[in-house]
């Protein structure tokens, strides 16, 4: 494969991709918010839709929670293929409008099966994140992709982490149903921001000229590295989400059933987003200078050192401080994966590669809570943090092996 295949044939003026970065960051933030905002009260909302036993409520809540992620993992490659044929902007518009309609309709449901069905459909309309990354990756010069994609990633990460906190406030101030309407309205604003402010010059590709999966893989100069990054993404997300099922319960335990548990649980959930928001752009720029893989490996080591003491905290303030540090490690890891994919993927298959990566991210979102639930049921809440540190260690060894002989091509 020739070197120029990894470059964009028609450079995009900085003023265009700078404006796109701002608009797409807003879209990424709202997209993350829309997926996670309903999490704090989803099971409570389901309880209002009928008379269910505790076991039924757990099953329905689990289905509603995981439905979107499961479907996203399946359909993302399809949207990625269409993005490479018709352009990424049209996929962004499709995703934002579809998400908005689904959330608004959730506010009208009268039965639990309707809610679960809409969560499945919401997953079908996923793809904003992967297409935003792909669009920007094809416009930004490779030497600046780490910083640009680091900034973009903070949008989704921050939205996802702040979502439960904001959703809890909205649900308590207004109502469950009105929160769905508000969130849907926010995503309609994403549709219009994308429509009017995101610029893309794209020439549609004929169906017969669209590359097959085998041809896409043949376009890659380092197949092992790219697929290694997919697995890395899955493990990162599984690590981040493994503590989701027990985080509020852990806060309740260390606060000894204080009546302020709900408030502090929201803060503990949101704190990493604050750290990621400020750290990711700086770490992305540093990765462009010293090597993206070095930043990622450093993030893994730092995460291991932070997760282990979380298992032994004695008060909520210690947990908050350590969660803040986890936000810094997150800023090292996911943006680095996006940058490595961007630097090692030809622009003509960028949409497909980023969509495959989103599938792995969604799979990690599903696997993580399962791991956390199993570990906490077999042992205790503290053990979840130890098992998460072990997952990060496995990821560290994986990436170390993948990048040891590929430093020059990765960076």
UniProtKB/TrEMBL annotation:
Domain of life: Bacteria
TM region(s), chain numbering: 21-47, 59-79, 91-110, 148-174, 180-198, 225-251, 263-283, 295-314, 320-341, 385-401
Listed GO MF terms: transmembrane transporter activity
Coiled coil: none
Main location: membrane
Any single GO CC term annotated in Swiss-Prot or TrEMBL for this entry: plasma membrane
Record's subcellular location: Cell membrane
Membrane topology: Multi-pass membrane protein
CDD domains in alphabetical order: MFS_MdtG_MDR_like
Boundaries of every Major facilitator superfamily (MFS) profile domain copy: 20-407
PROSITE patterns membership: MFS
Pfam families: MFS_1, Sugar_tr
UniProtKB keywords: Cell membrane, Membrane, Transmembrane, Transmembrane helix, Transport
SUPFAM superfamilies: MFS general substrate transporter
PANTHER family: MULTIDRUG RESISTANCE PROTEIN MDTG (PTHR43414:SF6)
Protein name: Multidrug-efflux transporter, major facilitator superfamily (MFS)
Biological classification of the source: Bacteria, Bacillati, Bacillota, Bacilli, Lactobacillales
């Amino acid at each position: 494969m020739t070197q120029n295949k990894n470059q964009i044939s028609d450079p995009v003026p900085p003023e265009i991709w700078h404006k796109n970065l701002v608009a797409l960051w807003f879209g990424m933030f709202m997209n993350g918010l829309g997926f996670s905002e309903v999490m704090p009260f989803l099971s409570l909302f389901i309880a209002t839709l009928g008379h269910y036993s505790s076991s039924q409520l757990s099953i329905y809540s689990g289905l509603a929670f995981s439905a979107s992620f499961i479907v996203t993992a399946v359909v993302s490659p399809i949207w990625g293929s269409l993005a490479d044929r018709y352009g990424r902007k049209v996929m962004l518009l499709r995703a934002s409008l579809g998400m908005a309609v689904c959330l608004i309709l959730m506010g009208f449901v009268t039965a639990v099966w309707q809610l679960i069905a809409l969560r499945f459909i919401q997953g079908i309309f996923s793809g904003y994140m992967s297409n935003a990354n792909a669009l920007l990756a094809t416009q930004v010069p490779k030497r600046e992709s780490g910083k640009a994609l680091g900034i973009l990633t903070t949008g989704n990460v921050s939205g996802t982490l702040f979502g439960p906190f904001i959703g809890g406030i909205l649900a308590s101030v207004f109502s469950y149903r009105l929160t769905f309407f508000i969130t849907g309205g926010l995503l309609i604003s994403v549709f219009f921001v994308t429509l009017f402010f995101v610029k893309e010059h794209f020439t549609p590709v004929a169906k017969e000229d669209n590359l097959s999966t085998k041809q896409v893989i043949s376009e890659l100069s380092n197949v092992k590295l790219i697929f290694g990054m997919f697995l890395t993404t899955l493990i990162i997300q599984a690590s981040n989400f493994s503590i989701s099922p027990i985080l509020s319960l852990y806060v309740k335990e260390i606060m000894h059933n204080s009546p302020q548990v709900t408030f502090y649980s929201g803060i503990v959930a949101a704190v990493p987003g604050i750290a990621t928001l400020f750290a990711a752009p700086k770490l992305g720029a540093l990765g462009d200078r010293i090597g993206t893989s070095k930043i990622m490996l450093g993030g893994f080591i730092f995460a291991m050192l932070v997760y282990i003491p979380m298992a032994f905290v004695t008060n909520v303030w210690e947990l908050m401080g350590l969660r803040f540090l986890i936000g810094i490690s997150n800023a090292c890891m996911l943006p680095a994966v996006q940058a490595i994919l961007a630097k090692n993927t030809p622009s003509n298959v960028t949409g497909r590669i980023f969509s495959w990566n989103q599938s792995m991210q969604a799979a990690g979102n599903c696997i993580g809570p399962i791991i956390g639930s199993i570990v906490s049921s077999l042992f205790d809440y503290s053990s979840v943090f130890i098992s998460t540190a072990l997952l990060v260690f496995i990821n560290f060894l994986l990436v170390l092996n993948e990048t040891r002989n590929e430093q020059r091509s990765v960076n």
